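Hi R.,

Here's the chain you asked about this morning:
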Amino acid sequence: MSKVCRVCNKEKKLHKFVALKSSEDGYTNICKKCHRESQKRYRTEKPEAYKSIALNHKYNITLEQLNEMKEEQNHSCKICGSSGELHIDHCHEEGHTRGLLCPSCNKGLGFFTDCPDKLHNAIKYLIRGGK
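And the predicted structure, written out as tokens:
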């Protein structure tokens, strides 16, 4: 089966369209290629609006909430206190946002799979000097 993209007006096979359960045929009216190009234009032309939508979609927070978090943390990492680039840290099991971390601390938690026992063992290891 195929359908016509409403943007490029080309007939394409259904797998070339984004799936959408609520539509009659199960797909959007815009092909994946046109959708990607539209998203790219939107990111370029309206970066703040795009960032706000992305934050809401991925972390369920608004741009205003992100800015409030930055203010509350004095624009610094919640673990080591360094300033500069900050990443949103979130619980992978429950999805809630925990705070803003520098790239190193954020990756560190990821490497320890957010497991307190592993982090505690790493602390003991460091205190004992690797023994």
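The mean pLDDT is 92.

Let me know if you need anything else.
M.
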